[in-house]
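User: Quick sanity check before I run a bigger batch. Here is a single chain. Can you write out its predicted 3D structure?
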Amino acid sequence: MDYLASKASYEAIENKVALYRVSFSDDIKKQLENTLSQMTLLLKNATRENIDPELIRESEKTKEMIEDMLQRGTPLKINLETGLVVQSGIVGKRAWVRDFQWHENVDESIFRVDDRRWVDHTDPISGLGSTDIMMFKHSGVWRPGQQTGELETKLLNYKTGDIRRVPYRGAQCVPLCFSQDRKRVYVGGLNLETALIGLFEINLEHLTQKQLGLPLLNRGYVLGGALSLDEKHLAVIQCGINNKYPSFSNQVVLVDLASGEAKPLGKPLDGAFLSWIPDGSGLVLVSRESKRLDQPPEGTVCRMDIQGNITALLKGNMPCALSPKPFILYEGDNRKWMTCDVDGKEIKPFMNGLNGFSFPSPSPDGKQLIMMQFGSADGPVPHLIDISSGKITPIRVPPGLWATPVWK
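Assistant: Done. Predicted structure follows.
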């Protein structure tokens, strides 16, 4: 009741259920305002394009819902007969309690667990520090035909099959990259109180963590990153930073790992898929431009120097800088994978084009890749690709949805 008095306002009673409206924190308000600004701009552009009217109507409904929540708060419902909270949470994180029943006599065998074998996953993953360890986002309960749902960031020893959850002390995290000793990982960590995703270093051996890049990275969402070869800097993509110009709401940020300080690198852009050029002279990334609401954005593979200057190389998506001889792997026309040099020249097909594969992540020595193959009835399957021989080997993984591989 103290919570309702301080955070919520009573609105109505219907069918013995009381409806309250819970106000948002300032940080969550900012995130919703940013989303609303982007939707307003997209709908404004949609009126000038030949967009599916149904898509426009759905977008307008979502926009109205966000406006309503900003003005009145998110709904919280309480059953007056049982005292149970029967609806809570914001859109996308909402929970309901339905068909609740009291049971006076319960068969205790339902809750017995002594007949099951439990695997201890509290110790560090086997092979810690080796190149056998990879990171993925994974949902073990997902099965084909279901919605994606929530995915956890997990470590996988692809040779032993050992799996551990990345020990982020928070709700969820996004895999970014490994340290060179392979005993630490960098992640974008979600804070449920602020709805922000900050930058964290996780020590896999001692299960400790520290936040980096403050105060600059104490807003928006950190959703991509790459570690420089000298391990002095971490380049990350900070998203959702510009309410006025949503198309330029991403920012490349350079974090000094010795001090933890961060600074913007270059101008805001719609960028993603960061990787370092092997000689450390700069970064490779994709810069995207949305021209129509009902079509995916058009990508341009770019190079960014350490002063933040951008050089457009060629049209493409998901670029990945590879070593030891510097070259760039990228997805070209018709979803065929191609390579070029760091100047965007010497364009060649990569193997047979690897149609159906996506999301490349190089091994630490640059001799192999992980890529996800799509089209299987069981969902995306991670594969090892030997760059010199062209050999492709599926990685044996437990059931569930596997995504966003990180090896380096």
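The radius of gyration is 24 Å.

User: Great, the batch can go ahead then.
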